[in-house]
Amino acid sequence: MKNCHKNIIILASGNGTNAVNIINHFSNKNTLSDSNLSNISIKALVCNNRDAPVLNKVKNINKDIKLYCIPFSKTAERASFEEELAGIVDEYKIDYIILAGFMKILSDDFVLKNLNKIINIHPSLLPAFKGKNAIKDAFDYGVKITGVTIHFVIPAIDSGPIILQEPVIIEENDTVELLEEKIHKLEHKMYIKVIELVSCEKIKIVDNKVKIFK
Ligand code: GAR
């Protein structure tokens, strides 16, 4: 394994179970499967929502992680959010921007300036069920298999080269709440794996497709 030395920032908007899981995992250097993984450093969390539970949760886990709350609602305000975000990315020499339940759309300009650096998690098998309510949309549609996709972000909603994708079977007795639980559990496992893969430079983008190598 290469030395995996990477600086990471997390963007979140709400509950933050993914953010909390990632921070817990990489803050606890004793439980990492390889000592090189201890070079993965979560520098900051940026939230766009003052009332998001993620803010309090993260505050209580790791005091070294800087918390930024930069609310914005209108597209016009997004420019100042992104300006501040770009400053944070520069200040901490951030290698990867991890979207973990970040429910806002970044501008094409910001995405293009940070191409192959922004990663998003989405609770469906993309390109099916894009948007904010993917779990419920898949459930209501009646699909028998849905899942989780983690992908690089390009200037189009819930699109971009797929890094990892795994299925979740919708059982006869599942409710939307049960499905949500299953998806979140899988998301937590997958995001750790993806952060390790990208940080340890085990992926390459060839012809717009992500190749994973050992
Ligand atoms: C997650 O299920 C994530 O995949 C989804 O929001 C949830 C956030 O949960 N993201 C999207 O729908 C993005 N289009 P969390 O705040 O508990 O991590």
How does this model look, in words?
The mean pLDDT is 96. The longest helix is centred in the C-terminal third of the chain and has 24 residues, at 176-199. It is built from six helices and nine strands, in the order E-H-E-H-E-H-E-H-E-H-E-E-H-E-E. It is globular. The strands form two sheets. Strands 3-2-1-4-5-6-7 form a seven-stranded mixed beta sheet, sandwiched between helices. Helix 1 runs parallel beside helix 6 (176-199) and helix 5 (134-141) packs across helix 6. The protein is an alpha/beta fold and 214 residues long. The structure holds glycinamide ribonucleotide (GAR). Glycinamide ribonucleotide binds at residues 12, 14-18, 100-101, 121-123, 132, 134, 158, 184, 187. Glycinamide ribonucleotide is lined by residues 12, 14-18, 100-101, 121-123, 132, 134, 158, 184, 187.
| Shape annotation | globular
Query: What's the story with the biggest beta sheet?
Result: 7 strands, mixed
The percentage helix is: 25-40%
- CATH superfamily label: Formyl transferase, N-terminal domain
Number of DSSP helices?
Answer: 6
Number of strands: 9
As a percent range, the share of strand residues is 15-25%
- Average pLDDT figure: 96
What CATH architecture would you give?
A: 3-Layer(aba) Sandwich
CATH topology: Rossmann fold
The succession of helices and strands, N to C, reads EHEHEHEHEHEEHEE
Which kinds of small molecule does this entry bind, naming each only once? glycinamide ribonucleotide
CATH class category = Alpha Beta
Spatial order of the strands in the main sheet?
3-2-1-4-5-6-7
